[in-house]
Design a protein that fits this description.
This protein is of the alpha/beta class. The chain contains 15 helices and 16 strands. The strands form 5 sheets. The protein has a 7-stranded mixed sheet, sandwiched between helices. Strands 13-16-15 form a 3-stranded antiparallel sheet, with helices on one face. Strands 1-2 form a two-stranded antiparallel ribbon. Helix 7 links the parallel strand 5 and strand 6. It is globular.
Length: about 450
Amino acid sequence: MLGEYGIEGRRATDIAASVERAVSSGALAPGQLLPPLRELAEQLGVNPNTVGAAYRTLRDRGVIATAGRRGSRVRPRPASTARESIRADIPAGVRDLASGNPDRALLPPLAGALAVAAARSDERAVLYGQAGVDPELERLARAALAADGVPEGPVAVVSGSLDGIERVLAAHLRPGDSVAIEDPGWGALLDLVPALGLRAVPMALDGEGPLPGEVERVLREGARALVVTARAQNPTGAAVSSARAEVLRTVLRDHPGVLLIEDDHGHGIVDLPLSPLAAVADNWAFVRSVSKAYGPDLRLAVLTGDAVTVDRVLGRQRLGPGWVSHLLQSAVVQLWSSGAVDVSAVSLSYGRRRESLVRALAERGIDACGRSGMNVWVPVPDETGVVARLLHSGWAVAPGARFRMAAPPGVRVTISTLGPDDIGPVADAVASAAGPAPGRRYD
């Protein structure tokens, strides 16, 4: 069962560490079945409860998955192995359409806003024991959320969308609980869920968001939480429409105990109207990041939700980092107040490139999608071959394996750096590398 590798240890921590070392070195391969609990206990001469505790530790760390009588296996891709590692090295001279970064030219300058924030800090330094959320940031955020139809709720400030999602999941769920995630979906989230000891359950989507039948299925099968991307879904560009939101709310009303998390990381780069779902959930959170519109290094997102959820998030945050720097919060206030980002202009810029590429691919017989945001998703028959051929042609794209669980193969093309003269050559290269192939549509 384990080949030549022998699990060692007399204590639960030692047994768990032995398995982790084997997984890290490759001695235990993804999908490999571990010995039954009692069998390993007999081999090691320890109590079965000791092995049980080791297996629980490994499950909680995302190293193994347990399935009752079917046993425990090494995860197909351990949670400690980031999906960001599933990429091709980009040689000199190759254009990077893989990293998913915004267009630098569309990001506002930060020097002025940070200078204002620093001057305010010199006048009134933030000390221990003060409120974690800047009052003006909270006021501006709450007004914007209310204008978009997000229900009233307390506000927290977290270090980006993923930090907020992690804190909400940890506040409500226990290891082994299931979390429904869009498939294809955000690779970092697909890493995070098993790292928390949770089980990711895929749900299919189209250009208007998660399919209602899929949401009903995953909730009926016991998913304890549902994560939905409001707009600029990564990697497909989906955006939840008002019609889709209405149907999803109906589905969610029949499952009042489910934790709902909505991710609006595309705020500031998408001018499609928001269609939030939160009004029908007892426990909910809505996360709005500034990274795509104002710069990834700002590491700030606003989080609101029901009182219990936000209170748990703030309480746990106080025991860790304490708060997100008021210098950053003050800088964001300055950026918002000054209108540093013209959402219509930014959205139009990304939209022209995205729609031009989708149209050019369609003219070449390639189905692709990208309703909002800065990415285009292209279904392909062979990701590895397509990525390699595009590299040879001078273009680096992201393999779909970074974003998929059960969804068909594809590649993600980030359009942020494409100019009008690039659209044709990129479409030609993709068409040559992939060839016309049927695939699930997301438009």
